[in-house]
Design a protein that fits this description.
Radius of gyration: 28 Å
Largest sheet: 6 strands, mixed
Oligomer: single chain
Order of helices and strands: HEHEHEHEHHHHEHEEHHEHEHEHEHEEHH
Number of helices: 17
Distance between the termini: 81 Å
Structural class: alpha/beta
Strand content: 15-25%
Strand order of the largest sheet: 6-7-5-8-9-10
Shape: elongated
Helix content: 40-55%
Low-confidence stretches: 1-14, 35-58, 191-195, 200-204
Length: 481
């Protein structure tokens, strides 16, 4: 079956800071769009074995998926998502094909007959790349590439390419490079016949004397270089993550609750962060638009401070190389006391998004953290779909980060679920201890406040460490009429 893909661009919020400077996200978006590929100016490789390894420069692509389970609609939605990934990487999708099979073919992923048909489609459409909707083994990639005679990549390589384009920070670039090398290592091969192989006697068709060589030395050297580079990148990532660990330690020491925004890619996480904190981070209608985590300070309606962290988006079948490489970044989620799980309410399969995100949360050990399901894009979603989601997820809030619908209700839900206010106290603070009054307002929840001749009487809920500091003033409160 053939699919046509088109997506309507969602309106994007733009603006300036109070001093008139453009928002950081707007500047990032301008920079990202400053260099565009001109179609039709690429040189097509007739023999992909002429190069050892080249960057993925996707232009005219044909998508191929294997439907092994679920409904036909689920298979088509998976291919539509692959089309969005391909367009995000900078390619033009020409055709999408889905084949019904019990399991993928171990040799060519789609079978030899279908591979020949795919070759005819590639010739007819003028495509230069085939993208498969799954992670292919090195042998499957090689055999399918030999049949269709153009570059073949899988879903994992496509996602890694998008991450490589969007990584901005030094840590993000190192994490992406580590994931790419981890993916490339088992897929190294001799691109052509110029590499000597270890043969002798009657081996290799009876080459005999004169056919012996040092073996595939170049591949072994490449593997050694990759392993050395991976070890260096792991050390660099560990060093760079120390700064984030220090900041997290400071927040824990001061008992400032942490809230993490997690969810499917392009569900509106950055838009929600901007709406709640005015962070001004990049917002774009594209998959994996932002990779680097952003932490901002926010306040509940009662004035209690907490941190809000935007994290990298998840996707179905997120490559395990990315989960491993971005583990230090994902610790923002594992260390949080509350997760805002953002779901795109306008997506055809929002339930599948929820399940995919929870699978990644289980993988990183964050599945036991309390969560609030935030059903975003309510202005573009179907009312029946939202009602179905609310019935499935009782602890949910319907919002629109673009219009501001439901944001106040979300703030109240965050305040109700924030951890860390374990003790209720009633204290009398002298007027010269205004610093303690400020700490109670910032780190606790004030239930009642009254000014008397001796000082300020406060009835509040506060963290344990602050309650211990206030113990001596609690005695004063008990003696005050």
């Amino acid at each position: 079956m053939t699919q046509a893909f088109s997506e309507e661009q969602e309106p994007r919020v733009t603006g300036t800071y109070e001093d008139g400077e453009p928002l950081t996200g707007d500047l990032d978006l301008e920079d990202r769009r400053a260099l565009r590929r001109v179609a039709g100016l690429s040189t097509e490789l007739t023999d992909v074995t002429e190069v050892e390894y080249r960057a993925l420069r996707l232009e005219r692509v044909v998508l191929v998926g294997v439907w092994t389970e679920g409904t036909a609609a689920m298979a088509e939605n998976s291919l539509r998502e692959l089309a969005l990934l391909a367009e995000t990487a900078g390619s033009e999708v020409l055709e999408g094909l889905v084949q019904r099979r019990v399991r993928p073919d171990p040799a060519t992923y789609i079978g030899s007959g279908k591979a020949a048909e795919l070759r005819d489609i590639v010739i007819a459409t003028g495509a230069d790349t085939v993208i498969c909707d799954g992670e292919l083994a090195p042998g499957q990639l090689r055999h399918l590439e030999e049949t269709v005679k153009v570059k073949v990549i899988d879903r994992t390589a496509l996602i890694l390419d998008i991450f490589a384009q969007h990584a901005k920070s030094r840590e993000g670039k190192a994490q992406v490079e580590l994931a790419q090398l981890n993916y490339l290592l088992p897929r190294l091969r001799g691109w052509g016949g110029n590499l000597s192989r270890q043969v002798g006697g009657r081996a290799a068709g009876g080459v005999g004397i004169g056919g012996r060589g040092p073996g595939e030395t170049k591949i072994e050297l490449d593997r050694r270089r990759i392993r050395t580079r991976m070890a260096k990148l792991r050390r660099q990532i560990a060093e760079m993550s120390k700064a984030r660990d220090t900041m997290r330690g400071d927040r824990r020491r001061h008992q400032i609750p942490a809230v993490a925004i997690a969810g499917y890619t392009n569900a509106g996480k950055s838009s929600l962060l901007n709406r709640l904190t005015g962070a001004g981070v990049l917002v774009e209608d594209a998959l994996f638009a932002t990779l680097d985590p952003t932490v901002r300070r926010a306040e509940t309606p009662s004035g209690r401070a907490y941190t809000l962290a935007d994290t990298v988006g998840f996707v179905r079948h997120l490559p395990h190389q990315l989960v491993e490489a971005f583990r230090s970044t994902l610790e923002e989620v594992t260390d949080a006391g509350l997760i805002l799980h953002v779901v795109d309410g306008s997506d055809p399969e929002p339930e599948a998004q929820i399940d995919a995100v929870r699978e990644v949360l289980r993988e990183i050990g964050a599945d036991s953290i309390p969560e609030i399901i935030v059903i975003n894009k309510a202005d573009a979603a179907d009312e029946l779909a939202i009602a179905r989601l609310e019935l499935r997820e009782p602890h949910s809030v319907v919002v629109s980060a673009r219009t501001g619908l439901g944001i106040e209700r979300l703030r109240e839900a965050i305040e109700a679920d924030l951890p860390g206010l374990e003790r209720e106290v009633r204290v009398l603070l002298p007027y010269e201890r205004g610093d303690l009054v400020a700490q109670i307002h910032e780190r606790g929840e004030v239930l009642k406040q009254e000014h008397v001749a001796e000082g300020t009487v406060l009835h509040a809920r506060v963290p344990d460490h602050l309650a211990n500091t206030l113990e001596r003033y609690a005695e004063l409160a008990s003696t005050t009429p």
